[in-house]
Design brief:
With about 190 residues, this protein is α+β, with helices and mostly antiparallel strands. The chain has 3 helices and 9 strands. The strands form 2 sheets. The chain has a 7-stranded antiparallel beta sheet, with helices on both faces. Strands 1-2 form a two-stranded antiparallel sheet.
Length: about 190
Amino acid sequence: MLNLFTVRGMPWGSSTDGQKKVELPAAEVESLRSAVADLEEREAHLKAQLEHVDELLRSARLSGYLYIRTRWTALPGEPPPLDDTEVDDWLPRFVVLHGLCLFFYLLSTDLSPQDSTLLSDIVEIGPLPSLTREDEETRYAFYMLTGQGLRYECSSISKIQVDSWLSALRSDCKVGSDATVLNGSSQI
């Protein structure tokens, strides 16, 4: 049999069948058993996490990575917000449309969302002009405005993905375009 581990300073002994064996003190054996138990516990936790994510994604209406940034609308009496169109503060987030809620995760494997909003809180949805970044990559964008004044701006390099999100959100939020909300009646 090949010796896969050769550790200097370890006492070696021979068994009756001619194979060499390492003799470990009881404390080291217990330490190794503890390490194996910790690894088995971690493996069980990761399996549970994977099953949770799998179940969430199976039952989600729509999910995927979008670049997100948030803005607050100015309150009455506040000065208008600064023009920050040149600020590149778009952060990639895994977004899940599930039931009556929109969840924002840092990664698709996270157990808990970083943020969420109820679809009933969304009062306005609409497209934004496409963006061209320094790397010449064009991103298509849309926004969602909540009744509390929080504006989520979302973008993707895929126009199809943006159109899918706009369609699903308009349908689920019972909101048309931005003109529908602002005028209080639908445009024909």
